[in-house]
Amino acid sequence: MRRAQRITAVALVSLVSCGGERTTGSPTGAGPAASVLHVALGGSVAARVGGQPIDRALVLAVARARAIPVEQAAAALIEEALLAEAATRAGALADARAKSTIAGALSRALLDRMRAEALAKGPWTDAEVEAVSAPHWLELDRPEQRTVVHALIKRDVPDGQELAKRLRDELAGATGDDPSSSAKAFSEKAKAFKVPAGSPVHVEDLSFVADGRLVDGSGGTVMPSFVKGTFAIPAPFGTSDVVETTYGWHVIRLLEIRPPHFASRAERIERLGPQLVAHRVKSSHDPMLDALRASGAPKIVGTDADLQLPR
Q1: What is the dihedral of CA 126, 129, 135, 139, to 10 degrees?
Q2: For residues 149 and 255, is the Cβ–Cβ distance under 8 A?
Q3: CA distance linking residue 255 with residue 187, whole number of Å
Q4: What is the Cα–Cα distance from 273 to 119, expressed in whole angstroms?
Q5: Is the dihedral of CA 257, 258, 262, 264 positive or negative?
Q6: Cβ distance 85 to 78 under 8 Å?
Q7: How deeply is 39 buried, as exposed, middle or buried, from its count of CB atoms within 10 A (0-12, 13-18, 19+)?
């Protein structure tokens, strides 16, 4: 095989690193001569396919996003570029499905480039770290957390407050040596308590932090008087006095105390790396989409029924 043919048949992949170049070969079959990769010896370009540059930052961003080695990321980008050129030469762009596929590939390539640009902007700002940390408060910025089981006599029960006092006296002695046994003894005793009229005793487990936020992910909160009554219990397995809320009268058993935890800035960045990148990309991505929609609003030419028809 002559030298020119060998170059045509093989795409040479070269990545520039601090220690020099790394080169691998990848057979491409009888691809067009214009698709031969030209080695970049430095700067921001890691490789070229024909006249199309492949940025070093893009290669690194793809490697990070897909959790693959840099060499594999470069090979994937080169292969996509080679196939795109081959499709263009073959006239595949005239096919509607091919156009849709290419549009999807281009959008993914744009996101990869935006990720690379986001990483190139430098260190994360305090505002970015704070914004991304907010939804993860339970793991990162958790105040003291308490887990309880409580018995409730609802307001529709006649003389409910007096009954709650009697219930509290009975529950004070129903305890155990660990959270599980203490909760079981408390629950069984509460459910066996006789209520002459109205709703029966309601028993429920709850976990919440010092400002009343529930830790079940629901976004709910506990009423301030309930929080105050719980945090007045000095130690696990203790029982509260009767606590009144808008729901009725509660007797609370403290099962567990978890100390507060506040993550350092370094810990936040380490744990939320992908979310920080996505947050920074979104700050560029959303305005770009808004501008594109404003300049040429998409038009749906089929009805809902048309769009749902099988193809």
Answers
A1: -110
A2: yes
A3: 12
A4: 10
A5: positive
A6: no
A7: middle
Look at residue 275 and give its three-state secondary structure.
helix
| DSSP state, residue 201 | P
Distance of alpha carbon 300 from the chain centroid = 32
Least confident of 49-53, 59-63, 217-221, 294-298: 294-298
Spatial CB neighbours of 111, under 8 Å, sequence gap ≥ 6: 281, 285
Tell me the per-residue pLDDT of 199-249, one tens digit each, with 9 for 90 and over: 999 999 999 999 899 988 788 999 999 999 999 999 999 999 999 999 999
- Of how many residues is the chain composed? 311
Q: Which two tokens stand for residue 26?
A: 């990848």
CA dihedral (134, 137, 141, 142) in degrees, to 10, reads: 160
User: Containing H/E element for 117?
Assistant: helix 96-120
Question: Secondary structure of the chain: what % helix, strand, coil (to 5)?
Answer: 50, 20, 30
Question: What pTM, to 2 d.p., does this model score?
Answer: 0.52
Residue pair 201/190 in contact (Cβ under 8 Å)? The answer is yes
What is the mean pLDDT of the segment spanning 182-186? Answer: 96
Give me 47's structure tokens. 């490789």
Yes or no: say if 250 and 152 are a contact pair by the CB < 8 Å rule. yes
What are 179's two structure tokens? 């959270």
Element (H, E) at 132: helix 126-133
Instruction: Read off the tokens for 254.
Output: 């403290």
Terminal C-alpha separation, the chain: 48
Q: Give the chain's largest Cα–Cα span.
A: 101
Average pLDDT, the chain: 77
Strands (E), the chain: 10-17, 20-27, 37-39, 45-49, 52-55, 141-142, 145-154, 202-209, 243-245, 248-258, 261-262
Structural domains of the chain in order of their starting residue, each with its CATH number: 3-120 (no CATH), 144-259 (3.10.50.40)
